[in-house]
Amino acid sequence: MRFNYVHIIPIIPFFLAISLHAQKTFPEKPQHSSLFRTVEDTIDINNIELHIDNAGSIGLFEGGIYPAGSGLKFLFSAGFGVTGLVNGELRTAWSTRISLIDEFKPGPIDAHPLDSLDGIYEVTSADTFGSANYISWEKAVQAGADFQDLNGDGIYNPNFDRPDILGDQTLWTVYNDLTDLAQRTPRLMTSPLNIEVQQTVWGYEATDTKGDMLFFRYRLINRGISDIEQAIITFTADPDIGDFEDDLIGSDVLRQMGYCYNFEEDGVYGTTPPAFGIVLLQGPIIEKPGGIAYRYRGEYFSTETILNSQNQPIQSFTTYIGGDPILSEPATAQIARNYGVGCLDAWGSAIDPTYWGIGSTSLTDCRFLYSGDPVSVSGWLSLQPQDSRMLLSPNEFRIAKGDTQEVIMAYVVAQGIDELDAITEIRQRADLAASIIGFNNTPVGIEPASESSINSFQLRQNYPNPFNPSTAIEFTIRRNAFVELTIYNSLGQQLQILQKGSLPSGSYRIPFSAEGLEAGIYFYRLKVDGQSRVRKMIYMP
Question: Residue 1: what pLDDT?
Answer without folding.
Answer: 35
